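Protein data:
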Amino acid sequence: MTATFDRIADFTFDLAPGDLPETTREAAALMLLDTLGITIGSGPMEAGVIARDTAALLYGSSDPKVTARMMFDGRPVSIAGAAYASATQTDNLDGHDGYNPTKGHIGVVVVPTMAALAEVVPDISGPEALTAVTIGYEIAGRSGLALHDTVSDYHTSGAWNALGVVAMAARLKGMSREQMRQALGIAEYHGPRSQMMREIANPTMLHDGSGWGAMVGLSAVVLAEQGFTGAPAITIEADEVLDHWEDLGRFWQMEHQYVKPYPICRWAHAAIDGARAIMLEHELSHSDIKHVQVNSFHQAACLFREVPDNTSKAQYSLPFAVAAQIVHGRIGVEQISGTGLSDETVIDVMSRISVAETDEHSSRFPVGRWADVQITTTDGRTLDSGDIHARGGPEAPMSRDEVIAKFMEFATPSLGEARAAAIRDAALGLTNPESKLSDLTRHLYDAPEA
């Protein structure tokens, strides 16, 4: 074993709940709640229905030691199948948290993994659950940095967040260090190294590959427990990535995730925020808009330009999202799905939006997601947002109350206010030393009432 793996194993197995800074525990509970809101909100959407039905068809288990109910569905499948279904469902409503330096997402696999493992690991305390959540974020985030630093293609989150899944399971299932090492190697080897920009150019239900990241991670765990072996994970043990692991346990990535105010690709958020700020400051309506010029970074300028005919394209369309914000003053599920896709007013405003790349904004990516917006009004004014950095990250965080309100907005339509509030209170209550994970999970598996 290498010194870096030993450091990671020590962190995974020896970190006590009391070792976490209070701010880290609070962040873990809040990100858990935020992700649950998107999991719930995405439940009725087509991708989530297909993912759950497919898990029931293909990824079941006859062994209760690895059987879990799918979240907000109730059907029993394997733990890998349950995590796959929920992660795919969550990934297809692009409102879950992310980490700027990795250009990707972690909570989307951490929360489904925790829900699946809670079905097979009894008596997990609330503080222990938040410790495992934090471990998942810390290992996945550094794996993502290591992968991006050592390969030429820009790969989706599923290529690296699978390693965080392994670390969580190793901790909660009491795997040996050798089993964990083998599982990390299996997960990295089989992780979906899918090219992100292909999905940007042609948005589909593939999204960020995180469904397969969750499945590969838990499948690797079961394989390693059965004695299957895997080559050491190079994103962990290769000499050229050692610097990414040196601050493990000192710098808490858990506290530096961004929360999305809109269920839209993060790359479009600065443009949305710029348009939003101008509309509010000058009390404009969509009828006042003659033209909108958006200048942003290269990847944002590559987002889908045409009128979307499905929700996947809508979530990856910068001009559609900006138009929806201008027309409705908000972007929720109803703006990016169903009849929202054919909203004639939004489509009309979209036709007046131009998008361009600027070197200044491109040079700031991926640490920041910047844009500037100019709106020309029908009475001849040109209104400029100035440089805007997307809200929700460490530089301009959403408040705790705003994150909680976002959860309720996405969870209540499917579950009703009482069940949504119970989940809210239980998730935030996991910071209580006397709490149990079951306080939360007892609300997570039953299908919503019709």
In short: The radius of gyration is 21 Å.
